[in-house]
Amino acid sequence: MESHGPVRVRRCRALRCGARARGDGARGAAVGHPRHSKGELVGWVAIEALSVSYGDTRVLDDVSLRIPRGSLVAVLGPSGCGKTTLLRAVAGLLPVASGTITVGGRLVTGPGVQRAPEKRGMGWVPQDASLFPHLSVGENIGFGLPRTKQNDDLYCEPGETSGGVGGLLAGLTRRGRVARAPVRVSAPSSHLAAAPISPDRSRQTSRAARITELATLVGLTELVDRAPSQLSGGQAQRVSLARALAPRPDLMLLDEPFAALDPLLRSALRTEVAALLRGQHNTSLLVTHDQEEALSLADFVAVMRGGEILQFGTPADVYERPVDPWVAGFVGDTVELDGHWRDGRVECALGSLAADWMGVQSRSERSSGGPMGERGAASAPADGTSVRVLLRPEWLTLGARGSAQPTTDAVVTAIAYAGHDALVSFALADAEKTAVRARIAAPDLPRVGDRVTLGICQNALAYPLE
């Protein structure tokens, strides 16, 4: 006897296995940043002693990094430092010379192990969106989702034949539903009525439902039938993000995804994307050369140079307690002076300042995420040792307001106006007329030639001379 009701098909094996592989069921739960007793971060993603070479050229040199679950980690560095190579190695797109990569306890790269990129459970968001031009927005979003005859049969409407990709996506919008011409199957005379849709069908992870969910999530519900050529740059990047999120990856990889956008759009979109990733509790690795982007978006920042990670920590750690003057200068503006260490203070052109000795951080400390600033007392130099004194421009203030340090006289020599504030250059009243800069809020700006008093509101940082 022929049945004319909808055919129920078991859920696709790929969907069942994907859920079981993650095995947590806690994607909607808040995720913390657990640490070992000695202060090191527990890594959901663990990169250990990774080295990558292009021929005889070593690009990554013994890189180690731990990414806590549910966090957004930014790899920050200048062009050519190896950050994109690191991302591609994690994705499985490059062979490694040595080292291991583990994701959620699964070894994906190691001695004798090189899991294929599509089997790593990772999503990739490239710099230029890279959408398929011959597919609609909805088809691009759903590209990485399982697409089989079983899926099409499971999710077609009662009495309709499966229509492949086009038929599956046609019901996503009202326009698509009107345009679709369903094929109805005539039921022969029979005392059996068509079977109703099973109540548990709504609980099946429908490919079409997932595409609709993601289109809504990235604010493109009304554009699922549109071609990529009809999208703006920001819309195209949203589609690329939704496509990467579709299979519910264990790790999201973002390769400078905002670099090609104009400044206003870049600022707005990166904030939206960071909020979206956190809302989905995704673990994400972002590579960028934009200091503001890394500091404003990431939970943790890894600073790279020459194929090595120089520092890993929270944005505040990296900005306020950089491991060396190069890192300090790369992530923000600095005021650097020569000085001498004496009894926990530095003597320099700004006077005798309270200071923190930064010392030298080992390679293992750089990637552990452990506490910083605790190495000063034991390794402080002898009195009279020449040191490099470093401050941030915003640590200098006009007058004694908020100053916890001695004050010094200065003359305003130049003002670089930026609207909300300005970088003001001063010549100090010492024999060398030492030049320093302070970041001053726009309402408090002096004029060129004004004589002012400079104070310092935070301890200076002292580094050994190289």
From TrEMBL:
SMART domains: AAA (SM00382). PROSITE patterns: ABC_TRANSPORTER_1, ABC_TRANSPORTER_2. One of its GO terms (cellular component) is ATP-binding cassette (ABC) transporter complex. One of its GO terms (molecular function) is ATP hydrolysis activity. The keyword Ion transport applies. Residues 361-383 are annotated as: Disordered. Keywords: ATP-binding, Cell membrane, Ion transport, Iron, Iron transport, Membrane, Nucleotide-binding, Transport. Residues 45-331 form the ABC transporter domain. This is ABC transporter ATP-binding protein. The lineage of its organism: Bacteria, Bacillati, Actinomycetota, Actinomycetes, Micrococcales.
